[in-house]
Amino acid sequence: MTNYKWGIIGPGRIAVNFCEQFPAGQTLYGVASAHSQEKAAALASQFKIPHVYSSHEELLADPAIEVVYIATTNNVHYDNIKAALLAGKHVLAEKPITLNASQLVELNTLAQSKHLILMEAQTIYHMPLYPKLLEFVAQHPAQVGRLKSLQAALGMFVDPNETAGRLLNPELAGGALLDLGIYTLSFARRFMTATPKLEKTVMVPTATGVDDTSVTLLSNSHQELGSFSLSLSARQPEVGYAVYEHGYFMVEHFLRPERAIFVDGATGKQQVITAGANQQAMGYEASDMATAIETGANPTAAWTQETMAIMTAMREQWGLVYPNEK
Fold first, then answer.
1. How far is it, in rounded angstroms, from Cα 253 to Cα 273?
2. What angle do CA 110, 166, 308 make, to 5 degrees?
3. Which terminus has fewer CB within 10 Å in the chain: N or C?
4. Where in the chain is the domain with CATH 3.40.50.720?
5. Where are the CATH 3.30.360.10 domain residues in the chain?
């Protein structure tokens, strides 16, 4: 694999995790922050990153940097990605990659016109367990049968009085959907054999107007269904189910899973399937990004676009528009 020089925009908590799991054979070259030079310097010191820039623009102007990892807040992903692509950099951007589907279409078109890779840092698309589960399905068609439905729930408790916090702040594109719902939808897309479409979604808002609790139903042309629930006011079990004709997968900690159990519907017999490591999740993202740059092909691009289209359609049904979109 080619060794690429990476720049980081947004030296917050998620960037620390990214650096901790960054794969050998790739180079952390520089970091920049729009708001805190001190945070950028601290990240550089902690992970021996040789260059700290005074601004995003200075980082993007450095010809040595080939790929940029964007770890800023949801509301500025579009602006940061566009600037990086215009500067000729490949981009790995934290989820959600944009606020809506039209932004993503625009950025994908820009990336393609410049022969650049734009990839979403979505762990579900990069964890080694998921291809292993689909390989199990392909190798045992009689035992498993056709996919029928997918189920997942994800929730956390956020103090409703912390209205200035990122998750409850509409100015920062807060709410359960972009931070949690994207995982449940990506889980569905990883198994579905045809493009999902939104059938129905119902949402209860927070006092700040972003989405708190919601329930959503998906379908597709192969008659596969998905049902998902989200919440910022109640913790929910992080378990996903992929239900087939003759059994089902129970995927524990489905955001960054290491193991799943296939339960035979007739006998109840359980088979444990393992692959990958939870603590290397973001490293898998970076490795897959490097491979995509090397090959010129992004195998996750369609999943990202389809998932973003579903989230945009959900918010249209809810009537939820972020200030940055107005």
1. 14
2. 35
3. C
4. 5-124
5. 128-283+306-325
pLDDT digits (tens, 9 = 90+) for 202-211: 999 999 999 9
CA distance 26 to 116: 18
pLDDT tens by residue, 58-77: 999 999 999 999 999 999 99
> For residue 143, is pLDDT > 90?
yes
For the domain bounded by 5-124, which CATH number is listed?
Answer: 3.40.50.720
3-state secondary structure (DSSP) of residue 205? strand
pLDDT beyond 90 at 165: no
Task: Report d(CA 170, CA 324) in Å as an integer.
Answer: 9
pLDDT-based confidence at residue 253 (cuts at 50, 70, 90): very high
What tens digit of pLDDT does each residue of 113-131 get? 999 999 999 999 999 999 9
Supply the DSSP symbol for 179.
I
Q: Using 50, 70 and 90 to split pLDDT, how confident is the model at 9?
A: very high
Predicted pLDDT at 1: 84
Burial environment of residue 264 by CB neighbours within 10 A (0 to 12, 13 to 18, 19 or more): middle
Does the model's pTM come out above 0.85? yes
Using CB atoms within 10 A of its CB, is residue 11 exposed (0-12), middle (13-18) or buried (19+)? buried
Do strands 118-121 and 90-94 pair parallel, antiparallel, or not at all (unpaired)? parallel
What token pair was written down for 218?
A: 């998906």
Per residue, the 3-state secondary structure of 108-175, as one string, reads: HHHHHHCCCCEEEECHHHCCCHHHHHHHHHHHCHHHHCCEEEEEEEEEEECCCCCCCCHHHCHHHCCC
The alpha carbon of residue 133 and the mean position of all alpha carbons in its chain are separated, in whole angstroms, by: 19
